[in-house]
Design a protein that fits this description.
Distance between the termini: 23 Å
Oligomer: single chain
Largest sheet: 7 strands, antiparallel
Strand content: 35-45%
Radius of gyration: 23 Å
Order of helices and strands: EEEEEEEEEEEEEEEEEEEEEEEEEEEEE
Shape: globular
Helix content: under 10%
Length: 497
């Protein structure tokens, strides 16, 4: 297969136009909203975030609906295009299904919305109501359309525990009237309940140490080969042990769910890709299964996040698992033979102790390649062309780059907003000023990629350097991660190529 931009992906996904993180004031706003109005009293630096993804595979395209903003579309599952919807911000956890030639959406603490297309525009339909007139306000809802046309809504519920300061997390299922989704048929049913004693991955704390409490959220339902799979997230989104757990039922979408033995489904606690919870599993090309998940990068805010995806399979017992685990190296994209498998590229410059043109106090160059999402290299404010130099020690065939920027100085109220980071990646086989040759040239880019991944024609390099030649006005371009990928050729290298 081709190793190019349209056939290879790498986590975290390079989603353009990542939106403003608004966790500190979501609860103060009613419904979905498109305006930006940070209330007085909300402190802390501005940051960007994208999380809690659901995807909707429709007519050969994937539609991605995350928290904070909508929506993103991909035809090759590698390159994503942002198409701003109206309303734009769904708060948390949007979920979409086709309904009567239109598209029905649910999201956190919001009424149902309806759109003419998968990209809207969306108009308010109303909250689901029980037969006694009680309004159901869904927490982290997942909406599901069964093969027979019946509609179900799943949401988080906190059940008080008498005499305890803790509550018991539950997932409720409601059947909605297929002709009027604001009308609930029957009563809500508990389909899953947290059990931290029996399921260690549900225990709160970054070491899963709290055997009495955990947080159970983000339900998503999918039907595969006649079996219903309920995917949930636990125990806390700010922790690196955040994961997705699977329950299944062979009876119906409202009963008979058991916790599968192969849990958690998505789990990774090291490197750039960690805290892999709250997301979904959905069908892709050729009836393949893919998990989309949140990636924790909680530097400015404990809910600051990005998004990843990986292949899912079904084992001999009908249980879901990720055959390659949670990945952080270049992989074959959906729709291709051997989708989800690695392409043989490995990170070449981890902990290579780069040198830099400058660095701010406490923001050493090493932090650009130390495998952490919570550290970063920051150049001096007066550095005219921030540059990182990496010695790979040996010559390698280099063919891909993952580059994760942090927007230092971001301030929406002051007009300091996101934009394009412009850069050039170069390689060399020897330490000579005139020996550098281009690998990637993004010096004229107008695209807003705070997290970028690029594949390029392989070149043999002993040294690589990143030159940042432009950034949004008012923003200092700090680098959370700069990883070059490639491999060592098995035979002797021809350094003239």
């Amino acid at each position: 297969m081709k190793i190019d931009q349209h056939h290879v992906y790498c986590n975290p996904l390079p989603i353009p136009d990542i939106p403003w993180g608004r966790d500190a004031w979501f609860a103060k706003e009613y419904g979905m909203f498109s305006h930006e109005n940070k209330p007085e009293g909300v402190t802390g630096p501005d940051y960007r975030s994208i999380s809690d993804p659901t995807v909707f595979y429709w007519e050969g395209k994937w539609y991605l609906y995350p928290s904070y903003g909508m929506a993103w579309v991909s035809e090759d599952f590698c390159t994503w295009k942002h198409v701003r919807t109206e309303p734009y911000c769904p708060k948390y956890s949007p979920s979409v299904i086709p309904w009567k030639g239109k598209f029905l959406m649910a999201s956190w603490n919001n009424p149902l919305y309806i759109g003419e297309t998968p990209l809207g525009p969306f108009t308010e339909l109303g909250f689901p109501k029980l037969s006694d007139g009680t309004v159901h306000i869904p927490g982290d809802p997942g909406i599901f359309l069964d093969d027979d046309g019946r509609i179900y809504l799943y949401s988080f519920h906190a059940e008080p525990i008498p005499g305890s300061r803790f509550f018991r997390s539950q997932i409720l299922a409601l059947e909605l009237d297929r002709d009027d989704p604001t009308r609930v048929i029957g009563s809500p049913v508990v389909v899953a309940e947290i059990d931290p004693h029996a399921h260690p991955c549900e225990r709160a704390g970054n070491a899963n140490q709290n055997t009495e409490f955990g947080w159970f959220e983000g339900p998503h339902m999918i039907k595969h080969n006649g079996r219903y799979y309920l995917i949930c997230a636990a125990p806390n989104t700010e922790f690196e042990i955040y994961s997705m757990e699977v329950f299944y039922s062979d009876k119906s979408p409202m009963e008979g769910f058991v916790c599968q033995k192969r849990n958690p489904l998505t789990y990774h606690t090291t490197g750039i890709v960690r805290g892999c919870g709250h997301g979904c599993v959905e069908h892709g090309p050729d009836n393949s299964l893919w998990a989309f998940f949140t990636v924790a990068v909680p530097y400015y805010h404990m809910y600051e996040r990005r998004i990843g995806m990986d292949r899912v399979e079904i084992d001999e017992n009908g249980e879901m698992y990720c055959p390659h685990g949670i990945t952080d190296t270049p992989r074959i994209a959906p729709g291709n033979e051997h989708a989800g498998e690695d392409i043989g590229y490995l990170p070449l410059n981890g902990w290579s102790r780069p040198t830099a043109s400058s660095q701010a106090p406490g923001r050493d160059a090493l932090y650009s390649c130390d495998g952490s999402a919570l550290t970063f290299w920051q150049p001096a404010e007066d550095d005219p062309m921030p540059t990182l130099y990496f010695d790979l020690v040996d010559p390698y065939r280099v063919g891909a780059l993952r580059l994760f920027f942090r927007d230092i100085g971001l301030d929406y109220a002051a007009g300091i907003r996101p934009g394009a980071f412009r850069y050039v990646l170069e390689g060399s086989t020897e330490e000579k000023p005139d020996a550098w040759f281009p690998l990637i040239d993004r010096s004229a880019s107008d695209e807003d990629f705070s997290l970028d991944f690029r594949v390029f024609p392989e070149k043999i390099c002993r040294f690589v350097r990143l030159r940042i030649v432009g950034s949004p006005k008012g923003i200092t371009p700090a680098v959370v991660d700069c990883t070059v990928f490639g491999y060592m050729q098995a035979t002797s290298l021809d350094l003239t190529k």
